[in-house]
């Protein structure tokens, strides 16, 4: 195997939170979301014309429960 060329991606789709890890060069790295966290809430919200995911969707769920849906 050539070092640096092979990467294995692991996705944990949990009922509450999700996480993505990458195994490359004998190391495991956890991918951060847009807010810098290693885990992302597993939820979706639909607001006006946009679809929101993760932290943003969770915040919107608190404000307007009719637009909130659990992702899994």
Automatic annotation (TrEMBL):
InterPro entries hit by this protein: ATPase_NBD (IPR043129), Hsp_70_fam (IPR013126)
Family annotation (Pfam families): HSP70 (PF00012)
Keyword Repeat recorded: no
Keyword Hydrolase annotated: no
Top-level lineage group: Eukaryota
GO molecular function, one term: ATP binding
Keywords, alphabetical: ATP-binding, Nucleotide-binding
Family according to the record: Belongs to the heat shock protein 70 family.
Protein name in the entry: HSP70-domain-containing protein
């Amino acid at each position: 195997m050539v070092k640096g060329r092979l990467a294995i991606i692991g996705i944990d789709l949990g009922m509450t939170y999700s996480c993505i890890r990458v195994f490359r060069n004998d190391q495991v790295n956890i991918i951060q979301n847009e807010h810098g966290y290693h885990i992302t809430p597993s939820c979706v919200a639909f607001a006006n014309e946009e679809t929101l995911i993760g932290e943003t969707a969770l915040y919107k769920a608190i404000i307007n429960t009719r637009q909130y849906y659990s992702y899994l």
